Amino acid sequence: MSTVDVSAALDALEALAANASTSSSGPLNRLLNEHFTVARERILAGSPPKQVITELQTNLARAKKDVEKGLKAWYSALGNVGKSVDKSFPPNLSAISAAYDDPPLFVDAAASKALDNIVLDSLGRRGLWDAVEAFEEETDLHYNSEKRVLSEELYRIVHDIESGNLSSAIQWTNENKDFLAAPPHPSSLPYHLHRAVFLSFTDRMKALEYARAHLFAYMSTQPVLALVTSCLYSGADESPYANDPAPLASMFITDYCRRHGWAREDPLEVVVDLGSRGGALNAIEKARRVMGERLGNVRKWEELPMEVPLPPNRRYHSVFVCPVSKEQATESNPPTMLSCGHVVARESLTRMVKSGKRSAKCPYCPQETALTSAQRLYF
């Protein structure tokens, strides 16, 4: 269970509120606005009051059942929210905090200021300027004015992209084209922006003119011809690109942050995401309780005693396990590529070299590699 499940439970609760059939106000409003009004008009028109009141009582009983049915769904949805919260967040946070408070966390002035700076930077990255100003007043910190201008520009352009207006994003890529085209990782953002504009045209001739002006420059690296010929399809729904939108906003944020040397993701968000949704806090706390005496103070652990499964987008360091020794590579025992292209750990290669020889036979193929020709790999 994660905070994603909490959001899903809250969404289900909001759906109940928006649905007239499950909202308690729906049957009551219908009873007041329809049945009472009709009953009053019928009595004023001369209908027998006893018959009208009998029918009104029937409608009232039906409305009562509808309300009870809606409340039953509400109670169930509220219960799911509570269960999701309990499973997503440890119920004994105070006890956990005390266990890690040795020595106390963020008591040092430098550590406390560093934490405040991280929170302030996170608020600025999200464009929450009212919160930034309030935080500045409470902490005497100040958000960098130049960074604020850049952050406002970032969110303005992202808002334009999400609104379907790509002109500001294209202008930014033109102003930074040298950086975006520079090796070792040239960006494909300019192509995908022009690609989106090209696909937005309904007039084929205008689309082809736009392609000649803006897309043909990417023919060596992108499938421009396949894209251009897609306009030959008779209908937009038949085009292979009809339901293939590129994540332009996400791509722009990545390149914008890279251009200005910012972390691609908010560091505070990453930490909270790993601790709660990623389950790292629960895993560490379980290890502390089960093996606390053998492992010592949790604050002195140099590495986690267990593996914490993380989603692919949260794996920031590649891990290489030597196929010979079955050990994980380290800085002192790095992965090493042999002449044949196979990779083993440096210590395994050293052990494979027989006494008196300067080369080792690959454990996977007959080719031999000299120690001097083996190359260290960086992942």
UniProtKB/TrEMBL annotation:
GO CC field: cytoplasm; GID complex; nucleus
Q: Name one Pfam family in it.
A: zf-RING_UBOX
Q: Which family does it belong to?
A: Belongs to the RMD5/GID2 family.
| Alphabetical list of InterPro entries matching this protein | CTLH/CRA, CTLH_C, Fyv10_fam, LisH, Rmd5_dRing, ZF_RING_GID, Znf-RING_euk, Znf_RING/FYVE/PHD
Q: Which UniProt keywords apply?
A: Cytoplasm, Metal-binding, Zinc, Zinc-finger
Subcellular localization, as worded in the UniProt entry = Cytoplasm
Could you give a GO molecular-function term held by this entry? ubiquitin protein ligase activity
- Give the GO biological process terms: proteasome-mediated ubiquitin-dependent protein catabolic process
Could you tell me what this protein is called? Answer: GID complex catalytic subunit 2
SMART domains on file: CTLH
Main localization of the protein described in the UniProt heading: cytoplasm
The chain's coiled-coil residues are: none
Domain RING-Gid-type, chain residue ranges per copy = 322-365
Q: Which residues form the CTLH domain?
A: 152-209
ZnF start-end (RING-Gid-type): 322-365
